[in-house]
Write a structure and sequence with these properties.
The complex is a heterotrimer of chains A (173), B (653) and C (349). Helix content of chain A is 79%, strand content 0%. By secondary structure, chain A is mainly alpha-helical. The longest helix of chain B has 36 residues. In chain B, helix 8 packs antiparallel against helix 9 and helix 12 packs parallel to helix 15. Chain B contains 19 helices and 2 strands. Chain C is α+β, with helices and mostly antiparallel strands and 349 residues long. Chain C folds into 3 domains: 62 residues; 116 residues, Immunoglobulin-like (Sandwich); 89 residues, Cupredoxins -  blue copper proteins (Immunoglobulin-like, Sandwich), CATH 2.60.40. Chain C contains 8 helices and 12 strands. In chain C, the strands form 4 sheets. A 5-stranded mixed beta sheet of chain C has the order 3-2-1-5-8, with no helix packed on it. In chain C, strands 4-10-9 form a 3-stranded mixed beta sheet, covered by helices on one side. In chain C, a hairpin with a 4-residue loop joins strand 11 and strand 12. Chain C starts with 9 loop residues before the first helix and ends with a helix. Classes of the chains: A mainly alpha (173), B mainly alpha (653), C alpha+beta (349). The interface between A and B is large, with 44 and 46 residues.
């Protein structure tokens, strides 16, 4: 799953730079630079969310009581919801519409696809958290938690890379 | 690693353990049959998660699409048999050739190669089911719905008509109005999901469920082929996911990915499409290479020479296959120096193919060939594929390609490699494995007719196309003027199609007749070495009676007859299997395969419905995402199985 | 949806075999044939073709012979003893290994020389060969070719459609783009194809070394009438080319008699002016081909029909029957107006 999505992200990034070559200025004329503020906040929040996730995974690997794991997972979910809300502001912060031009289209697509991952990741984490807190819990749910953590690291890690492309490199290329 | 129940008993390979008594075997058989029995009736058919049933469905559906694609080809050949023919007009012809390409590539070739893998791989590696049985079922339904979507559209005269490769801007909103290309794009969504699911299944199953002792270097070459192909699918399919999504977005919500007026780029589509499209043909071809190895082993009674070289060749082909895509774009304004790199890569990929061909010839040289129908198809493969490979190298040359690109020369080339290199090995596989699947032998006499008609017809149809291309006939033309001088060769090519039609008819008759009255096949009618021949024909729903233990690359040749080492101790009251380590297949723990369920069909219906709505409105995505999530929640809902796993005590909150 | 089985009468069968023979013998020459080169680019590739075919044929014969030999040898073998039945002996393994290694080495060498040859031929044909190339612009449309001859003096610029005249022996440099979808410019007798891509400018060149008429055709699927989007390259001696150029640069000849004058009126008052230009008249639309010197062209409808009165009449009245899907609508004209219009159009030399 991670391989597939990672390949898709790589291709979106390649497309981003490919489209760049069709423009003399980047972003295109009359388009403001995308907001660094709100997007940096989102990156920070997601990076922060790695900590409770890592901790929950560590507890799970050690087969600690599930209630504690569940609580830490809820923290992750909260971060995820925060990231989703911030994503809304990031769309606005792009200062372009998806149907304005190819720049708008590719940036919106990158943000949208990653948003889908944020949503799926948050919902799945929520589900596992609920199982941990409400039960009944089996051993294999520990494995679910550690596996979920890897996926979450992918979601965050891919966003760091995508953020660098869309919000940072735009200022240099 | 914990296993609450002790690991099943795996015998020490050097220790001669006790033979299992016939009474114990009977008991085992009875219990396993009861546990693994498929539910009866229509509902049972809808909810099946048995990999053999699902794979058989895939294969039958793929053959139906092959026939439909063939009928489309027949119509094309009829139209082109004479200059200025009026059999079909341009609009219908453009739909037909688009349908032919899309059907053959997306609805026949990839699915059938994956399906043969889904049937055989678990049997060959000695496990009872694929890793995620319900997801496997989901894959089939998505595939079926995608194909049905496409054909319903075609029969309603809204079939896609911009080619199977859907170049923009022709396939974009401005020049392909209506829903034709949206339907194409969403058919892609269905089939790409099915292909990715199949790939995940095959990789996971091969990595984690091989019989104890079947280290990676003891896997049959066919299993290696399916493994490598699945990795290719994982990396190649995202490209068409991304590009078809971009196309759908351009058409539905006015994005500008491919609109040059707003900074988009028509060439971006080509890069993304061919980054998928070129590996796609190797995704079709590499499983066929595995089939060739299997059939050559059985019909020369020799293990394939150069096992490590064969694996390395398939791996190199897979890697190199990702580095060739620009050779479809030599006529675009990409810099020549960059393009030359792709010439070199395209020439280089012939070397691993050459290695394989030489190793097979060496194997045959040292063995005792038996000219069964399956083996005839393999010999046909050599004759045809090598021609295709050589013309492929020719068109890897940029100046040469600039004359023959988009002409019938290329059509000839890829039909030689696809029919010769994939369809002929597939047909060899059909004749080879049909006894295992059905318990009956196919008629060798009808098989001979099948082979010769196909071989002769294929050459009559496609060889003249090389010449037609050089004489200036472009592709994808619904007609041509009489003064061009192409009428004769076109008529000849169309005549050859009659043979191909006859050949397929003979095949279908052979299958139907053999199912009813064919000679019963034993467990191993060909004296083949691999594990699928260790169980009955057809295999019971649970695959092997006992999980075998493997000590070499050719288990059935190494073991004395009737004396295969096996694993005992797996539960027979639930769908239990054995998980083993990736490298050396050392047993790790037990695993419970999911039982039949209606959820895959439900998810396919709702998810599929979403995709279909997305043809017409972007809101489909939102609605569908919600319904799909609900079903997925049910899918993954943690279930407590009594005394299966250790419940964990909760701390009071 | 079973197709009807084609009828194969004996006359057809004998014609068929005759065609095959003829095709092989005579087929190499032709006015759209890559194997009948009329210029350096096509010539280089034709030579490359024959050497590649030869090498490929030799490789094929060798490999297939090895296969046949292996099959023959295997099937004549006595039944070996049980111990080696499934495995090669060490001696056999050595022979096999040597054979495979040699074969792979030869393959690698052949491939390497192929790449080298291809790249050197490729770069030599990519370079414009000759001095002072003639400059032409081509714009691809669904389903016709807009051809412009730019000049240093803008008064000399003119446009035509579907027919490209060039002087023999002088290189021609073409800059191309497309108005709508991707097309591809390909005239096999003179050289390789190049795509016309909207949003991009592509460049190609060729040189015709003998006088003649060479047919080209669009080589990238571009919609309904992709099959009927041809063009002609007319290579003529320099003096004839210059006189053609001069005539094309001029405006359309004014109608001299009453019939042609009436025809011009029909043209200017009808829907024709919505799409076509005739320079020297108020008609200046660019959706369709420029008709200023229509009568000087050999064909109409992008190479689909010879340019004569009957075809022109049929085309004007109902282009959809000839090229279904084309952008030109049918035109209702009474016989008198049609006659006048035809007379006018045929005066546009």
């Amino acid at each position: 799953m991670i391989l597939i999505e990672g390949a898709a992200f790589a291709l979106l990034v390649a497309s981003y730079y490919y489209i760049r070559r069709n423009f003399d200025t980047w972003p295109p004329p009359r388009t403001l630079l995308p907001e660094l503020g709100v997007s940096s906040a989102n990156v920070a929040l997601q990076l922060v969310s790695v900590v409770p996730m890592w901790y929950a995974a560590k507890l799970a690997f050690a087969h600690e009581p599930p209630a504690r794991i569940g609580k830490w997972l809820l923290v992750v979910v909260a971060c995820g919801i925060g990231a989703i809300i911030l994503r809304g502001f990031e769309f606005a912060g792009l200062h372009t519409r998806y149907d304005s031009n190819a720049y708008g289209s590719i940036t919106w697509m990158i943000l949208s696809v990653h948003l889908a991952h944020l949503i799926a990741g948050s919902l799945e984490t929520l589900l596992i958290a609920l199982v941990m807190l409400v039960g009944p819990v089996e051993r294999k749910h520990y494995t679910d938690t550690t596996v979920m953590a890897v996926y979450w690291y992918f979601v965050v890690g891919s966003w760091v890379a995508l953020w660098l492309v869309v919000f940072v490199s735009v200022r240099f290329i | 690693m914990t296993a609450s129940a002790p690991l099943p008993a795996v015998p020490d390979p050097d220790f001669r353990r006790d033979l299992i008594s016939p009474r114990d075997e009977e008991e085992m058989r009875a219990r396993l049959s009861a546990t693994w029995k498929e539910k009866s009736g229509f509902y049972g058919w809808l909810t099946s998660t048995n990999h053999k049933s699902i794979a058989k469905r895939y294969i039958v559906t793929a053959i139906i699409f092959f026939i439909l694609g063939g009928l489309e080809a027949g119509m094309m050949r009829l139209q082109l048999s004479r200059p200025e023919n009026h059999f079909v007009g341009p609009d219908l012809y453009n739909q037909i050739f688009t349908m032919h390409g899309s059907t053959m590539m997306f609805l026949f070739a990839v699915p059938v190669m994956e399906a043969v893998g889904l049937y055989l791989v678990p049997l060959m590696i000695g496990t009872r089911n694929v890793a995620f049985p319900r997801m496997n079922a989901l894959g089939y339904w998505m595939y079926l719905f995608g194909g049905v979507l496409l054909y319903v559209a075609f029969f309603m005269n809204t079939g896609p008509d911009a080619g199977w490769f859907a170049y923009v801007p022709l396939a974009g909103p401005q020049y392909s109005p209506g829903k034709r290309m949206d339907i194409w794009a969403q058919m892609i969504t269905f089939t790409e999901i099915a292909a990715l699911i199949g790939a995940v299944e095959i990789i996971t199953t091969i990595f984690k469920q091989r019989a104890p002792g079947m280290s990676l270097n003891r896997m049959p070459l066919f299993v290696w082929a399916e493994l490598i192909t699945s990795f290719m699918i994982i990396f190649a399919l995202p490209a068409i996911v991304v590009s078809s999504t971009m196309l759908a977005a351009d058409r539905l919500v006015d994005t500008h990915f491919f609109n040059p007026a707003e900074g988009g780029d028509a060439i971006l589509w080509q890069h993304l499409f061919w980054f998928f499209g070129h590996p796609e043909v190797y995704i079709i071809f590499i499983p066929a290479l595995g089939m060739v190895s299997s059939v050559v082993e059985a019909f020369t009674q020799r293990r394939i020479f150069g096992y490590p070289a064969m694996i390395l060749s398939m791996v190199s082909t897979a890697f190199l296959g990702f580095g060739l895509w620009v050779h479809h774009m030599f006529a675009t304004p990409l810099p020549q120096l960059g393009q030359s790199f792709f010439t070199a890569a395209s020439a280089a990929i012939s070397i691993p193919s050459g290695v394989q061909i030489f190793c097979w010839i060496a194997t045959i040289w040292g063995g005792r060939p038996r000219f069964s129908t399956a083996f005839k198809f393999i010999i046909g493969f050599f004759f045809l594929f090598i021609i295709g490979g050589l013309t492929g190298v020719m068109i890897a040359s940029i100046p040469y390609d600039l004359q023959v690109h988009d002409t019938f020369f290329v059509v000839a080339h890829f039909h030689y490699v696809l029919i010769g290199g994939a369809v002929f090995p597939l047909w060899a596989g059909f004749y080879y494995w049909f006894p295992k699947l059905s318990g009956r032998m196919l008629s060798e006499r009808a098989g001979s007719w099948n082979f010769w008609l196909f071989f002769i017809g294929m050459n009559i149809t496609f060889f003249p196309m090389h010449i037609l291309g050089l004489l200036g006939m472009p592709r994808r033309v619904y007609t041509y003027l009489p003064e061009m001088g192409w009428g004769g060769l076109n008529a000849l090519a169309s005549f050859g199609a009659v043979f191909i039609v006859a050949s397929v008819c003979v095949f279908l008759f052979n299958v139907w007749n053999s199912l009813r009255r064919g000679v019963p096949a034993g467990d191993n009618p060909w004296n083949a070495p691999t594990l699928e021949w260790a169980t009955t024909s057809p295999p019971p729903s649970y695959g092997h009676l006992y999980i075998p233990v493997v000590e070499g690359r050719d288990p059935l040749w190494d073991a004395a007859p009737g004396e295969l080492a096996v694993v005992t101790g797996l539960r027979t009251d639930r769908h239990e299997g054995l998980i083993t380590s990736i490298m050396d297949a050392i047993p790790e723990r037990r695993y419970e395969f999911k039982e039949p369920s209606i959820l895959p069909l439900l998810l396919a219906v709702f998810g599929g419905g979403t995709i279909v709505i997305a043809i017409f409105s972007p809101w489909g995505v939102t609605v569908g995402a919600i319904t799909s999530f609900i079903i997925l929640a049910g899918w993954f809902w943690p279930t407590i199985s009594p005394d299966h796993d250790t419940p964990v005590a909760r701390e009071p909150l | 949806m079973m197709p009807a089985r084609p009828r194969v009468p004996t006359r057809f069968a004998s014609t068929l075999s005759a065609c095959v023979v003829v095709a092989f013998v005579v087929g190499c020459s032709g006015w759209q044939s890559a194997l009948d080169p009329k210029g350096p680019r096509a010539d280089a590739v034709a030579k490359l073709h024959w050497s590649l075919v030869t090498v490929a044929a030799v490789v094929y014969v060798i490999v297939i012979s090895a296969l046949i030999y292996a099959l023959w040898r295997g099937s004549r073998r006595e039944l070996p003893d049980q111990a080696h039945i499934h495995r090669e002996t060490p001696e056999q393994a050595d022979t096999m290994k040597r054979g495979v290694v040699i074969a792979v080495a030869i393959t690698a060498v052949v491939m390497l020389s192929f790449v080298f040859t291809s790249v050197s031929v490729g770069s030599s044909v990519a370079r414009v060969d000759g001095n002072k190339p003639l400059r032409i612009d081509v714009v691809g449309h669904q389903w016709w070719w807009e051809v412009k001859y730019p000049d240093a003096d803008p008064h000399n610029n003119f446009e035509t459609a579907n027919e490209i005249h060039v002087p023999v022996g002088r290189p021609v440099l073409i800059k191309m783009t497309a108005q709508d979808v991707i097309h591809s410019f390909w005239a096999p007798n003179i050289g390789g194809k190049k795509d016309l891509i909207p949003g991009h400018e592509t460049v190609t060149w060729f040189r015709a070394d003998s006088a003649g008429v060479y047919r080209g055709q669009c080589a990238e699927f571009c919609g309904h009438e992709h099959a009927k989007m041809a063009f002609f390259i007319v290579a003529e001696p320099r003096l004839e080319f210059e006189s053609w150029l001069q005539k094309q640069r001029g405006e359309a000849p004014q109608p001299t008699d009453s019939l042609t004058q009436a025809g011009q009126k029909v043209f200017l008052s009808g829907p024709c002016v919505m799409c076509h230009t005739i320079s020297g008249t108020p008609a200046a639309a660019t959706a369709g081909p420029n008709l200023t010197h229509l009568a000087s062209r050999r064909t109409i409808a992008a190479g689909t029909l010879p340019n004569n009165t009957g075809n022109l009449a049929g085309w004007i009245l109902d282009p959809q029957t000839i090229k279904p899907g084309v952008k030109m609508p049918p035109n209702q004209l009474d016989p008198q107006s049609l006659r006048a219009l035809l007379a006018y159009l045929e005066s546009l030399k």
